[in-house]
Amino acid sequence: MIARALIVVVWCLVSGAAPAAAESLAALLPSELAPTVVQQCSRAVPRISGTWQPSENQIRQLEADFHLLDAHKDDACCNPGASLKNPLRYYRQYVGVIRGGRRLIYINAFREPAPPDWRTAPVVVCDGGDGYWGVLYDPALRTFSQLAFNGIG
């Protein structure tokens, strides 16, 4: 068993391939794309006054804090009854937005199939229910707010 795993790792290194499980499901988009990302057609989105570019460290902290989303069930973060399980299993686009003078990160999340250009182009999907959602993250306070799911059409 160990030999088989070693062969797979060596093949991946030689061929330049990465195992599918190791592929990141997250992309930090350039700040100029933020206005398009927050123009979703079937869920509530935040009004923004500007954009900024989050750092990789801020994104790592955001991902480490995702477990807090389930802890926020039925409070100011989310709509009553809104709950999100396993957010790291969704494809996620991150953009820096300014709202009320605060630098926040908007997360645009969706299930498969992901479009081929999802790492570089905003994904906007109408309907789809809880397979598509967005939420704001405040890196200074390490809190989430305004979790919203797409409508069902």
Q: How are the SSEs placed, and which strands pair?
A:
Elements: H1 2-15, E1 26-28, H2 34-37, E2 50-52, H3 56-65, H4 68-71, E3 91-99, E4 102-110, E5 132-138, E6 143-149
Parallel strand pairs: 1-3
Antiparallel strand pairs: 2-3, 3-4, 4-5, 5-6
Short description:
The chain has 153 residues and is an alpha+beta fold.
Write structural notes for this entry.
The structure is a single chain. The protein has 153 residues and is an alpha+beta fold. It has one domain (24-149). The chain contains 4 helices and 6 strands, in the order H-E-H-E-H-H-E-E-E-E. It has helices at 2-15, 34-37, 56-65, 68-71; strands at 26-28, 50-52, 91-99, 102-110, 132-138, 143-149. Strands 1, 2, 3, 4, 5 and 6 form a 6-stranded mixed sheet that branches. The protein is globular, with a radius of gyration of 17 Å.
Which terms summarize this structure?
153 residues; six-stranded mixed sheet; single chain; 6 strands; 21% helix; alpha+beta
Number of DSSP helical runs: 4
Radius of gyration: 17 Å
Share of residues in helices: 10-25%
Oligomer: single chain
The rounded distance between the terminal residues' Cα atoms is 48 Å
Low-confidence sequence ranges: 1-22
- Listing every helix as H and every strand as E from the N terminus to the C terminus, the arrangement reads HEHEHHEEEE
Total strands: the figure is 6
Query: How many domains is the backbone divided into?
Result: 1
Sheet of most strands: 6 strands, mixed
Name the overall outline: globular
Mean pLDDT: 83
Strand content of the residues, in percent? Answer: 15-25%
Give me the secondary-structure category. Answer: alpha+beta
